[in-house]
Amino acid sequence: MARRATGAAQRVAVAEVPRDEKFNARRIELAEAALETLGELGFARTSLREIAQNSSFTHGVFHYYFSDKLDLICCCVRHYKAKCVTRYDEVVVSARSREELTEGFLAKLAATLETEAPMHRLWYDLRSQAMFEPAFRKDVLEIDKSLEAMIWRVASRYAELSGRQPVSSPRCALCAIRRPVSERVAQAPRQRHEGRSRTPCRGTTSAADDLS
Amino acid sequence: MARRATGAAQRVAVAEVPRDEKFNARRIELAEAALETLGELGFARTSLREIAQNSSFTHGVFHYYFSDKLDLICCCVRHYKAKCVTRYDEVVVSARSREELTEGFLAKLAATLETEAPMHRLWYDLRSQAMFEPAFRKDVLEIDKSLEAMIWRVASRYAELSGRQPVSSPRCALCAIRRPVSERVAQAPRQRHEGRSRTPCRGTTSAADDLS
DNA sequence: CGACAGTCTTGACGACTGTCCAAATTCTTG
DNA sequence: CAAGAATTTGGACAGTCGTCAAGACTGTCG
Predict the structure, then answer these.
(1) Cα–Cα distance for residue pair B185/B116, rounded to 1 Å
(2) Residue A190: its chain B contacts at CB < 8 A?
(3) Is A176 on the interface with B (CB under 8 A)?
(4) Parent domain of B205
(5) CB contact at 8 A, B38 and B76
(6) Same domain? A3 vs A96
(7) CA(A125)–C1'(D17) in Å?
């Protein structure tokens, strides 16, 4: 935002575009660094300085690329979820049978739960924050819709491979998949740059168990 | 906590008890005042000073009755939920038919959604916080279990009045009731001491819609 | 009445927050 | 290479935070 405010507005279009692309690429680089800390500490406990210190950037840079903290966090979760919603697409188009689709889908789902529990946790956190912080509401709602569409693509394909009509609605399909997922996510332990430790496969029921 | 640390430990038992009761009563008074602000702003945005300013107490009192902020918040949500879990008990014992139970239950549920949306919202918030703040986990899990039991009492009674066995498990019954409830809660607008304004009965789907 | 424990108020403390900005640095372009 | 724009840095700023403690107030009991 700061950069847009400065000069060079009337540059020729051929140079303008790659410059904006570079700017956006940097934003995403920063957002990914921020996600590291955000997923670990949650929204309430994460400060810009903490993000910076936990990355290779200084805290000033974040204010050069983002108008404020909420702008950064929105960008973070948007970027992450944009990757999420394409996760099953390849499985959907390549599966040739119902069983193949089921297996491929569950494999990807399991892998996600294993490796990206902190991100899921962060997403739950931000959905709650959106109830109090109006600035989040629009983004959260939009992402939720895209998740709904993602699951619906899987469900539709499943019905198609079965030679039937889908038996549910997009919203219900999302809800159905959410419960077992959130149960697993809530069990994932926090880890703070102490090397890779696999999330336990099964533990005792933990707090925040079942966030449905 | 502070008081317990000071003297008067060897007071006679007859005087000890009412004094502790008075102390606890005061704690609950403070907790209820804190819930006002907490339900309005959520965990992340609520400070002790904000709580105090939004009540008839000074911020120092809270430190006299609670060891720290987390202690206060845990007490708040414990106290509120303790009231919650008895909400339907009267309906359960007094209902003489399946229809009577259904009607009584839904009436109470609707009334709660109308008047206590901020509290529900706060509860969702704290469940998310528990994923990051270990100090919350124990309380959250415990409360969740009591909610499960609460719904199960209704479901069991319903089955009994129908002359059948319950068709679900306690956990599933809780999940089933949660989804429509959280949808409604997420729609409730924030209100900050600007007089009573009824929550809208139905609106467009809002963010944080469906927290399942 | 005086002593005293319990209760409450008030102001202060250091740590931390988001934001801003001037200077330093790097990169691009003429 | 020189000039100017873009980027990056790190410190300063005004607030706010949780916590603490010294003193004031209250009621009770000897």
Answers:
(1) 9
(2) 132
(3) no
(4) 85-212
(5) yes
(6) no
(7) 22
Residue in the structure block whose two tokens are 């819930």: B35
Domain match, B175 and B93 both: yes
Tokens standing for A39? Answer: 């997923």
Find how far residue B165's CA is from the centre of its chain: 30
Q: Give residues with Cβ within 8 angstroms of B184, minimum separation 6.
A: B113, B117
Give residue A8's pLDDT band: very low, low, confident or very high (50, 70, 90): very low
Determine the residue of chain B that is closest to A171 in CA distance: B210
Q: What is the pLDDT of residues A67-83, one digit of tens each?
A: 999 999 999 999 999 99
Sign of dihedral through CA atoms A16, A30, A182, B139? Answer: negative
Nucleotides in chain C near protein beta carbons (<7 Å): 5-11, 16-22, 29
Using CB atoms, pick whichever of B44, B130, B185 lies closest to residue A129.
B44
Q: What contacts B1, CB < 8 A, 6 or more positions away?
A: B65, B66, B67, B71
pLDDT tens profile A159-193: 999 999 887 888 888 888 887 888 787 765 554 44
**CB spacing of A131 vs B138 below 8 angstroms:** no
Q: What is the mean pLDDT of residues B125-142?
A: 94
Q: How many domains does one find in chain B?
A: 2
Per-residue CA distances from A198 to A35, A114, A120, B181 (Å): 19, 7, 16, 35
User: What confidence score (pLDDT) does residue A189 get?
Assistant: 54
Residues B122 and B120: their CA atoms lie apart, in Å, by 5
Interatomic CA distance for residues B80 and A201, integer angstroms: 34
pLDDT digits (tens, 9 = 90+) for B87-107: 999 999 999 999 999 999 999
Same domain, B129 and B195: yes
Look up tokens 């919650």; give the residue: B84
Domain boundary among A31, A59, A76: A76
Dihedral of the alpha carbons of B186, B115, B123, B102, in degrees to the nearest 10: -90
Question: Which amino acid is residue A48, in one-letter code?
Answer: L
Q: What is the DSSP letter of A86?
A: T
- List pLDDT tens digits, range B6-25: 333 334 444 556 678 889 99
Return mean pLDDT, chain B: 82
Q: Of A58, A76, A94, which residue constitutes the final position of a domain?
A: A76
Share of chain A above pLDDT 90, in %: 67
The closest of A198, A39, A10 to A111, measured between CA atoms, is A198
Q: Which of residues 184-203 of B touch A (CB under 8 A)?
A: 185-186, 190
What's the predicted TM-score (pTM) here? 0.83
Nucleotides of D under 7 A from a protein CB: 5-11, 16-22
